[in-house]
Amino acid sequence: MLTFKLCVVPVTVSAKYLKQLIRILFRFLWGSKWERVKRTTLCASIEEGGAGMINVENYILALNLKWFQKLLDESVVANWKQIEAPYLRGQRVNAFLNATISLNRAEVKRVLPLRTLRHTLVSCIQTLNLLKTKSTKRTLWLNKKIKYQSKTFFMKPLIDSGVMLHKHLLTNEGEYETYDNLALKFNFQANNAEFIQFIKLVSSLPEQWDSENYIDPQTTQSEHLLNFIKDTNSVKTIYTKLQDSVARVPVKSQEFWKNKLFINFEMPWREVYINNFNSTIENRLRSFQIKLNLNAIVCNQILHSFGKIDSDLCTFCKNATENVYHVFYSCHVTRTRVPLTLPPVNLLFGVHNGGSGDKLVNCMLLCARYVIYQCKYSENKPTVFRFVCFLNSVRVSECHVSKKRGNFLAYRKKWCRLLCTEV
């Protein structure tokens, strides 16, 4: 229902409500108030090392941008466009997008009384800021540097005819055009009321603009925006583009594992992330591996530093400080009870041979890691029997899900080396 409302009418979502909604989502994700990874990292795609968590703010921006795209698209015919379209004729879109004052100010409301349209333009400006586009600093309209009696300027005839920038007021020699010559040059109807406003505008221009050389960006803000949202058939496409521009690759965790595991080669992190994710359809395993990728598994070393437990010693061996590397690899209890003779990088991140990897092998390694993780919190010793039982439960679960989804052949292809028949 909320998505439908935001799609049809771009209503304003209060900052307080949005903040509470995002907090609830991330508390549900972590199961506590303690967020161990930056939200921008978690909102990145699986391939980039994130969890594919929805970025609510960007999703709302995408909904508003899609609505704005329909508004500007002349091929889309709708009765509701007769209300908004007159306010965006000519170059008025550029005037609003290049504004250096808030679009919620009273002087803007006088020229743009529609609240939904103002909110959508604010979303467009937020998008341009996310994309870090370069806007002109010498726009004439709604510019806080150009004021007369504390009010900015917005002259519709000049805007509709294309007079947008300081350079448009100048002749080839760098002198200011007269009002009549400007009207002939840009083909608009001159009148006395606008002439008085023009005189006030020229007298309010900053003096340094006349002495400084400045080159305006070749691409306008509306062109930046239209290039961004063109050829997008859905809100999801726009949202994906926004996420690609703001998502952050977990460089810190990658460097941690590279140093901890003494990796002296170029680690194919993208393959590691996607292959481990695709090795199983069990969400608990996928969630666990994402936490491991981001070094977000909580061990006794961290809990002891927070004062939550009395000792930082390993739950299994009671001899060494417990951290992620120790629990899953260097602990002698783990290595003897779950004997996997693999290098630590393969034990923690699977086997990848420059392609999609071996799904069964990576799934088995992931199950082994998860069993060790479960035994740590239940304070039981990890054993081969526990691993086999858990692996079988994963196999049975995937069997039921694949039958329900009509994807049983993929299940057979993955598990055929362990099974001869499937009842």
Keywords:
423 residues; mainly alpha; 55% helix; elongated
| Total number of distinct structural domains | 3
The tally of beta strands, per DSSP, is 0
The helix content, as a percent range, equals: 55-70%
End-to-end Cα distance: 43 Å
Q: Count the helices. How many?
A: 24
**Fraction in beta strands:** under 5%
Global mean pLDDT: 87
Structural class of the helices, strands and pairings?
mainly alpha
Spans of at least 5 consecutive residues with low confidence: none
Q: Element order, helices and strands?
A: HHHHHHHHHHHHHHHHHHHHHHHH
The best one-word shape is elongated
Rg (C-alpha, Å) = 30 Å
Biggest sheet, in brief? none
Task: Describe this entry's structure for a reader.
With 423 residues, the protein is mostly helical. The protein folds into three domains: 1-134 and 217-249, no CATH class; 136-209, no CATH class; 251-415, no CATH class. 55% of the residues lie in helices and 0% in strands. The two termini are 43 Å apart. The mean pLDDT is 87.
